[in-house]
Amino acid sequence: MKLTKSSKVVIIGGGFGGLAAAALLSCAGLSVQLLERNETLGGRARVWTENGFRFDMGPSWYLMPDIFEHFFKLCSQDVDTVLPTKRLSPSYRVYLAGSDAPVDMFSDTVRDGATLDRFFPGSSKSLTAYIKTSKSHYDRSLRSFMARNADTFFHYMTLATMRDGWGLPVLISMEKHLSKWFKNDTVRRFLAYQTLFLGNAPKETPGVFSAMNYVDFAMGVHYPDGGIGAIVTAMANIITKAGGTITTGADVSSIDVERGSARSVTLTDGRIIDADIVVANSDYHQVETVLLPKESQSLDQNYWSKKRPAPSAAILYLGIRGEAPMLEHHTLLFPDDWDLSFSELFHGHTLPTDPSIYVSCPSKTDPTVAPSGHTNLFILMPCPTGLTWTPELKRECTERLLDILEQSFSIDGVRERVVVQRFYCGEDFSNDYCAWLGNALGGQAHTLSQSSFMRPPARSRKVKNLFFVGAGTNPGIGMPMCLLSAEMLVKRLFKTGGPGLLKQLPHI
Ligand SMILES: Cc1cc2nc3c(=O)[nH]c(=O)nc-3n(C[C@H](O)[C@H](O)[C@H](O)COP(=O)(O)OP(=O)(O)OC[C@H]3O[C@@H](n4cnc5c(N)ncnc54)[C@H](O)[C@@H]3O)c2cc1C
């Protein structure tokens, strides 16, 4: 496949992966058209505004600032100018079930170590050594694995990669890995809950994801001016400035394939858009089982039925009068029975009885997200995928979430203080983003057999000019990973770059 200036790239989906791909490919000089079925961009990272409240509907933790900086640099933009961020302090607050005293974490190993010592003396010493090792895991992963287009295990068979891979805890779980460093259950939870960000349980997530602990405990948790929606806007601006076009309200109903190549995509309103290259950011399962003609599908329903999706979620967005003093910008409630909560999440078929809870309260940091004297928050309960969301279940879940806000976070009279309220669940993820089984995070959970080269491939096995970006493919879930997936597409199309990050963007 030869790239030329007139090569027409059609990108299906304006989530993080699609926007990042459109931005990089437009800046690289290709002719790009992005098609998004919803009226607003961002996909799971969309913004909802109502009555003076502005909600980032999905991601709220801006982690891995190095990857954002690198992405904007590739697009010839200075991240500090287009997207100034502040580092949160504390990074987040944790409530342990059964305890009224919250614990604040600061992404500072000395300060956080002293906090963990309160649960188990000597934890601080372990934490310092552990985070040093996690940093090495992070650096080695980024250099050799995370941004590499590896379609099979054999792509890792180079001396440098084997050196970087040597000793990485790939074959043991996060839980086992952590238990080598920390003897106390509670302390381990502070380092294990991050596996939920990967859509998985600590027992089933490969230990190499301890790199996430370096991200969280050392790099810090940041917040961009204008919230996550500002990143979406910044990417859209890059695309249009570089000559790309963005069409919202454009719902793709099929990818049209002739002799093994995608020739066009057809929209539900009948429009046909010609393409030399098609990039799917839309749900991988939907592309393979609905958008492609049968003979061009390479991952059929049988494949998907053996895979585990990332969990779904029930979210209650609330604009309320007054303050919520017990919350920080990010607040977590750890479940009482840790194992039960994960088992209910991944193997249950109803609302979890003892869930982990996350509350995002950006009005703690950003006065522009709520009218003066009001609080903007959402409360999120991870839920199993595939639930049938009857009106009764939605009502029950809403009431439970309101109760949790009152009882666990001491937000008195929350029901009477509500100005704006919206409930969002698996059914909405399916309706809005065509999400496979209503999963919340954008693809398969990061188990060992669903990570790295075993994740759905970034290039179709049957349609030679069809590529994938976003959380459904490599490297996986989360905003920074979606940015990397777009960079990996550039490397693939331009046949350039090594296993790590690009030094500069190629140009046609
Ligand atoms: C509640 C929540 C909290 C999260 N928290 C964090 C966090 O704090 N930090 C973090 O880094 N990540 C977080 N994540 C994960 C992160 O948001 C996702 O991994 C990421 O946004 C996925 O982006 P994507 O581009 O792969 O997919 P999507 O965002 O789903 O984008 C795909 C796009 O394709 C569009 N589309 C689908 N089908 C079609 C079609 N047929 N035609 C046209 N368009 C179509 C969809 O409408 C959508 O806009 C969170 C996710 C959720 C839901």
Verbal overview:
It is built from 17 helices and 19 strands. It has 3 domains: 8-84 and 225-307 and 448-494, 3-Layer(bba) Sandwich (FAD/NAD(P)-binding domain); 119-219, Guanine Nucleotide Dissociation Inhibitor, domain 1, CATH 1.10.405; 308-433, no CATH class. The model has no long low-confidence stretch (mean pLDDT 96). The two termini are 14 Å apart. The chain has a 7-stranded mixed sheet with strand order 7-6-15-16-17-14-18. Strands 9-2-1-13-19 form a 5-stranded parallel sheet, with helices on one face. Strands 10-11-12 form a 3-stranded antiparallel sheet. The protein has 508 residues and is an alpha/beta fold.
Give a quick set of tags describing it:
508 residues; 19 strands; 19% strand; 3 domains; FAD/NAD(P)-binding domain; alpha/beta; Guanine Nucleotide Dissociation Inhibitor, domain 1; five-stranded parallel sheet
